[in-house]
UniProtKB/TrEMBL annotation:
CDD domains: BTB_POZ_KCTD8-like, H1_KCTD12b. Pfam families: BTB_2, H1_KCTD8_12_16. The keyword Translocase does not apply. GO terms for biological process: protein homooligomerization; regulation of G protein-coupled receptor signaling pathway. It comes from Neotoma lepida (Desert woodrat). Residues 49-152 form the BTB domain. Keywords: Cell membrane, Cell projection, Membrane, Phosphoprotein, Postsynaptic cell membrane, Synapse. This is BTB domain-containing protein.
Length: 320
């Protein structure tokens, strides 16, 4: 019995030894693989084939060869000279570029095809030219500069006046004054013409601005001092009018590249002060013709009897 027990224990000991030896072997085999993976230089040396970009909040997905297709450009510098670990990334791992997210689509089109097709009535040539200079694309900047010069020359030609048709039989002299008037004088007559500029040729139309707000109504109908909380001021109307009035303060991200003769209800302003919007509309010759507001109670506090109301308000402006 004793010998058997010893033998049994010996067998058990041998099995345990084999087991632990096998386990240690596995551990020893796994350790070099783990250590070989922890190499920051290898992790940060290469870019993936498909790259996600976050440009001013807009997400773009493109191929790595596209971004390095033009040597010397800023994108080429970012994605060929630098490594991924040195570039700024957002919380989802996309490479972040702090530029205009909606104009970047044309920059990316140019990187793909070395040409860019702009929509009709494109009003952002100047801003796109600035983006081309930032991304170090001289040929694109040159193309846009030629386009802007052509548009400006067309605008000047449309304002010219054929003075020979006005007075063909006399030798006329004329000059332009700072008040946009043309003084024409001859041996027997003189006249003064008023040249209307682009700022004076204002079109009639409506613009509606709206906002959603909230306020707290307490006991005895006492309203909280911070009653107006405006998250966003929306703009509805003809696109050309909206751009004329609000200019660069107009956020077109929800409805980009829309022709100026079309209408939209998806624009909003980059500021949240109603009075600032009113001032811009008044400066452009608009006046308020109607307004309306609705309110709904959303939350009630049992302990304080305070009620939080949400409201939607619209103001309609018109220019003759």
């Amino acid at each position: 019995m004793k010998g058997k027990l010893v033998k049994g224990y010996g067998v058990i000991a041998i099995k345990e030894r084999k087991y632990f030896n096998k386990k240690n072997c596995q551990v020893n085999m796994a350790m070099p693989e783990k250590s070989s993976c922890v190499k920051p230089s290898e992790e940060c040396s290469n870019f993936p084939e498909i790259i996600e970009l976050n440009v001013g909040g807009q997400v773009y997905i493109t191929r790595y060869p596209t971004l390095i297709s033009i040597p010397g450009s800023r994108l080429w510098e970012m994605f060929s000279v630098k490594n991924p670990c040195s570039l700024i990334q957002d919380n989802k791992g996309r490479f972040f570029i702090d530029r205009d997210g909606f104009l970047f689509r044309y920059v990316l089109d140019y990187m793909r095809d070395l040409q860019v097709v702009l929509p009709d009535h494109f009003p952002e040539c100047g801003r796109l030219h600035r983006e081309a200079e930032y991304f170090k694309l001289p040929e694109l900047a040159k193309m846009l500069a030629l386009k802007m010069n052509k548009l400006s020359s067309v605008g000047n030609d449309s304002c010219q006046i054929d003075l020979e048709e006005l007075s063909p039989s006399i030798d006329t002299t004329f000059n332009f004054s700072s008040t946009n008037t043309i003084h024409i004088s001859g041996p027997d007559n003189s006249m003064v013409l008023t040249a209307a500029t682009g700022s004076e040729l204002k079109k009639a139309g409506f613009i509606t601005i709206g906002y959603r707000g909230s306020y707290t109504l307490g006991r005895d109908s006492q309203t909280d001092a911070k009653f107006r909380r405006v998250a966003r001021i929306m703009v509805c109307g003809k696109i050309s009018l909206a751009k004329e009035v609000f200019g660069d303060t107009l956020n077109e991200s929800r409805d980009p590249d829309r022709p100026p003769e079309r209408y939209t209800s998806r624009y909003y302003l980059k500021f949240t002060f109603l009075e600032q919007a009113f001032d811009k509309l008044a400066d452009a010759g608009f006046h308020m013709v109607a307004c309306n507001s609705t309110g709904t109670c959303t939350v009630t506090h049992d302990q304080t009897d305070d009620r939080i109301w949400t409201s939607y308000t619209e103001y309609v402006f018109y220019r003759e």
